[in-house]
Each structure stands twice: as structure tokens, then as C-alpha cells.
Amino acid sequence: MKKIYTMILALGVSGSAVAGGMNDDPFLFMLKMDKLEFRDTDNGTNLIWDAQAWAGKDLNKLWIKSEGEQTEDGTEEGNVEVLYSRAIAPFWDLQAGWRHDFRPEPSRDWFAFGAKGLAPYLFEVDATAYVGESGRLAAALSVEYEYLFTQKLILSPELEMNLYSKDDEEVGVGSGLSDMELGLRLRYEIVREFAPYIGVVWWGKYGNTADYAKAEGGDTSDVEFVAGFRLWF
């Protein structure tokens, strides 16, 4: 993440200079497909996406995020977030806005507030709290690290978890720690903007979320092999 921010800032400044004058606060944008991968599951091959885009200047940006899962029967999970982002420190932003869960149905809407940036030792952290209808509260945490074997071969462990304050049986979510995912992906950057990868993911559901999944005949944990690519421009 730090490398990407630095490169984009450099490109933006050089582009301004070519245009005829230095701009200390250029308008920049980025579109990043962090994950577009196929997972080998017990019920077939699922497609996972995790995409982000932002546009703005050094301190203030508009972010759009989306992630979800497509199965052979259609979209099983999916959401989109629209956030205002304000830089508060080098490589740290506060973000606030709206999240819409369009799958599973019925849809849910949330007010979102969180922080995104680089923690000590270059851990990339994305932590968000959510306030929904009927007094629902939720929180999501994502932590990722990049270990460089070479400048092109990169190993990336990742942790994701979701927590909820109330049971929501209609969408299969229980209170407390709802689910957790641990992933390990090895990617090769053919160019910085494009990198295929392979990996393995373990996920588990807990509490009433696991009970709801069992009642529907679903799994509560699994280990899945993945293959996909990462790109940004």
C-alpha cells in the first residue's frame, strides 16, 4: 500500500509538471482489484471479488469499495460502500459514509465509520464500525502483510473478521464473532499493475451464524484453494 501511494503521488506530480506547472496538491485517482479469484469449494467453484477505487486530492478523497461472492446459483454475498476519506497522518485515513448489503436478501443499510492505513511493521489495516437499522451494530477488521521474497514474488497473509451486536436470522448472521477468514496468497508481479496469484484460505462461522448455516444445510468451516489475479491502475 505504501509503495502504491508513493508511486501514484509521484505520477501525479510529474503529470502536473508536464502540463506546464507544478501542482502541490494534484487530483489523483486509483482503481484496484485487490482480489478476483476462483475458489475450489465442496459445492463447486466460486468467484470472489474485492475491489476499491478512490479519487481526490492529498487530504480528501471519495472511496468506493465492493466485495462479494458469486456461486453457481448466483450472488450469495455482496456489498458496496461509498465513503468520504480524510488523511489524518502519513498513510492513515479516517473514513465515513454508507454501506449497502445487497446480498443476502433482505438488503441491509449501514452508516460506516472507520480507519484505514499502515500500522507499525507495515501491516495494512482496515477497521470499520457500522450502525444499522433497529439498533444493529457491526464491526469489520482486515489485516494484511506483504513479505517480499523478491521484488516480484510476494507472499501475503491476511486476516478478516466480522462481529455483530444482534442476531439477524433473515440474513443468517448471529451476534458476537460471526465469521473469520485466514488467507495465504503467493503472487507474482509480472508488472506492478498486474499480478496473478495462488493460495489457500481457511474460513469459519461461529455462534448463531454457524447454527443458521447448519439449519440451511451449509458448512460452518472449510479450507479452499484459490487462484486469481490482482490489478490496479
Automatic annotation (TrEMBL):
**Which InterPro entries does this entry report, sorted A to Z?**
Cu-R_B_prcur
Q: What is this protein called?
A: Copper resistance protein B
Q: Which GO terms describe its biological process?
A: intracellular copper ion homeostasis
What are the boundaries of the signal sequence? 1-19
Q: Give yes or no: UniProt keyword Signal.
A: yes
Q: Which UniProt keywords apply?
A: Signal
- MF terms (GO), sorted A to Z: copper ion binding
Question: What is the species of this protein?
Answer: Thiolapillus brandeum
Q: May I have one GO cellular component term?
A: cell outer membrane
Instruction: Report which superkingdom the organism of origin falls in.
Output: Bacteria
